[in-house]
Write a structure and sequence with these properties.
Elements (H helix, E strand, L loop, with lengths): L1 H42 L7 H12 L2 E8 L7 E3 L1 H13 L1 E14 L5 E14 L4 E15 L2 E10 L5
Parallel strand pairs: 1-6
Antiparallel strand pairs: 1-2, 3-4, 4-5, 5-6
Helix pairs in contact: 1-2, 2-3
Length: 166
């Protein structure tokens, strides 16, 4: 009877340990997803947005990135490492070209197997209307790297995955 009590306690300890680990990973996964939600919210632009709101959102975008953050595309001039201030500046200029802009991330796959590193494969869809009236619809697959520091999860790398054309 005494042995059975210890076996039950040991099993409960193992189950509790596994549950705590699962909760930890799930919590970290939610924190990573939250960074993508912030990026989506702050990059998107609604019709009639004031210049002050536009500047505030651009500044907030910079807070999501490590210094430096690497951007890679299959087009060489658009591959570089940028500081958070440079990213905010580019965001401000890019958003100013649009009357409406919507940035959505979906099909997110998060790998937290390395300590303090999140590897994320995600699809991004950008839709909007330029100030000249042209409609934009772009869909790309991205491989992103986020690193955890004392301030939370921050983007350290974005790479556009070149998809073969059919």
């Amino acid at each position: 009877m005494v042995k059975m009590k210890w076996v039950v306690l040991a099993v409960l300890a193992v189950v509790t340990s596994i549950a705590n680990s699962a909760c930890f990973l799930q919590t970290e996964e939610k924190k990573v997803k939250k960074q993508f939600r912030h990026l989506s919210e702050w990059a998107s632009k609604e019709r009639g947005e004031t210049p002050i709101t536009m500047a505030q959102r651009a500044q907030k975008i910079g807070t999501l990135f490590l210094d430096p953050c690497e951007f890679k595309t299959h087009i060489e001039p658009f591959s570089e490492a940028l500081t958070p201030d440079e990213i905010s500046s580019y965001a401000m200029r890019g958003r100013s070209l649009f009357t409406v802009l919507d940035l959505v991330f979906y099909d997110m796959k998060i790998d937290l197997s390395e300590e303090r590193v999140a590897k994320v494969t995600v699809t991004v869809k950008a839709t909007g209307r330029l100030k000249d009236g042209e409609n934009i619809k772009e869909i790309h697959e991205l491989e992103c790297l986020l690193k955890k520091n004392e301030g939370g999860w921050l983007f350290s790398r974005f790479e556009v995955v070149e998809v073969l054309k059919r």
